[in-house]
Design goal:
Elements: E1 8-23, E2 29-45, E3 49-53, H1 60-67, E4 75-80, E5 83-84, H2 90-97, E6 100-103, H3 117-127, H4 133-146, H5 163-175, E7 181-185, H6 193-210, E8 213-218, H7 221-227, E9 230-235, E10 238-244, H8 245-250, H9 255-262, H10 269-274, H11 305-308, E11 316-317, E12 323-324, H12 329-333, E13 337-338, E14 346-347
Parallel strand pairs: 3-8, 3-9, 6-7, 7-8
Antiparallel strand pairs: 1-2, 1-4, 4-5, 9-10, 10-12, 11-12, 13-14
Length: 349
């Protein structure tokens, strides 16, 4: 992990991504929206790794794809080195494509099975007019060597490689254009645990060598802690907490983060037996019809109905530097509000 003093490379401001729900015989009637991302803001410094975590369906992958304009934003700004790419035309956006790349989650479906590995890696070079022919092939071999694969792999096809090797090929392709920002969308979730560690170590080594900036999207909290400088936690289309990796794990401030971390096993039987588990009641609400007030109140064990059910909490900076969206973060940490087994909280005098 590295942190640069060069300032923010990426700023995301009030990003919203809504997918329309259509009805009718020809699906021409707009009856609502799936609010996949609903007002997300964060920044990433050059050379930093920001981890983005949350359960499936919270919108984290949509955030990553929208930053690269693979999805079109509904509202908000995506500022890359001072330039708002959310409003750029496709021709202007193409000029920036080489500086922003993505590693996809599934190493099996993200590589074209009809192309050799050499062509897969060299394709971005050809599209952007950087190298052709022998030069492109030599660059592909160089990139394979960088990610720990033999140069002879250029003549082989994706189906001849394991999942971990395919993900290395995807990483080599992402590095082809010397990007500044890489969005890694759950790059290790489809890999065996032993291979996950190798991939994470490789990402850290490449970050150090090439001064890369990562948005690392994942749901495995242990992996995210290892690679991230800061972590942002998402729930139902919104960010609910942001803090340094060590600070977040040592002292979470949002009830949802507390619940997530309480489910992470600790390799110490005494600590594991003594710590308190926070079990969330109910199912994740639909992003097409999110709850009024705090979106987490339907499952929050610290819920205070008078305020949580009606008032949406702002993402605010707390006294210890954490950023959290909870009306009662200070009271919960001070023990003035205790979790209740029924899912309703009780105040402590």
């Amino acid at each position: 992990m590295t942190t640069s003093d060069a300032g923010d490379l990426l700023e995301v401001e009030d990003l919203k991504v809504y997918f329309p729900i259509k009805s009718g015989l020809v699906f021409d009637r707009h009856v609502g929206d799936v609010k996949a991302v609903d007002g997300v803001s964060f920044e990433i410094e050059r050379g930093e790794t920001l981890g983005l975590v949350g359960e499936s369906g919270c919108g984290k992958t949509t955030v990553g794809r929208t930053i690269l304009r693979l999805y079109e934003p509904t509202e908000g700004r995506i500022v890359f080195e001072g330039k708002d790419i959310a409003s750029l035309s496709q021709s202007d956006l193409r000029k920036l494509r080489g500086r922003m790349q993505m590693i996809f989650q599934d190493p099996y479906s993200s590589l074209n099975p009809r192309q050799s590995v050499g062509n897969l890696i060299a394709e971005p070079l050809k599209i952007h007019g950087i190298a052709m022919g022998d030069k492109a092939r030599a660059r592909a071999e160089e990139l394979l060597d960088i990610v720990g694969l033999p140069k002879s792999a250029t003549a082989r096809y994706p189906h001849e490689f394991s999942g971990g090797q395919r993900q290395r090929i995807g990483l080599a392709r992402a590095l082809a254009l010397n990007p500044d920002l890489i969005v890694a969308d759950e790059p290790v979730s489809a890999l065996d645990v032993s291979i996950q560690a190798q991939m994470v170590n490789l990402l850290e080594e490449l970050q150090e060598e090439f001064d890369l900036t990562y948005l690392f999207i994942a749901h495995d909290l242990a992996v995210v802690r290892h690679i991230s400088d800061r972590i942002a936690v998402m729930y139902l289309g919104k960010i609910v907490e942001v803090a340094g990796a060590d600070e977040l794990y040592a002292s979470p401030r949002h009830p949802y983060t507390m619940a997530l971390l309480s489910a992470v096993p600790i390799p110490d039987p005494k600590v594991e037996a003594s710590r308190e588990r926070i079990l969330l009641k109910g199912d994740l609400p639909s992003p097409a019809n999110p709850p009024q007030g705090c979106r987490f109140h339907t499952r929050c064990p610290f819920r205070q109905p008078d305020r949580c059910d009606t008032e949406d909490p702002e993402l605010r900076t707390l006294a210890d530097g954490h950023v959290a969206a909870c009306h009662y973060a200070e009271e919960i940490m001070a023990g003035r509000i205790k979790a209740h087994e029924s899912g309703r909280a009780e105040a402590v005098s």
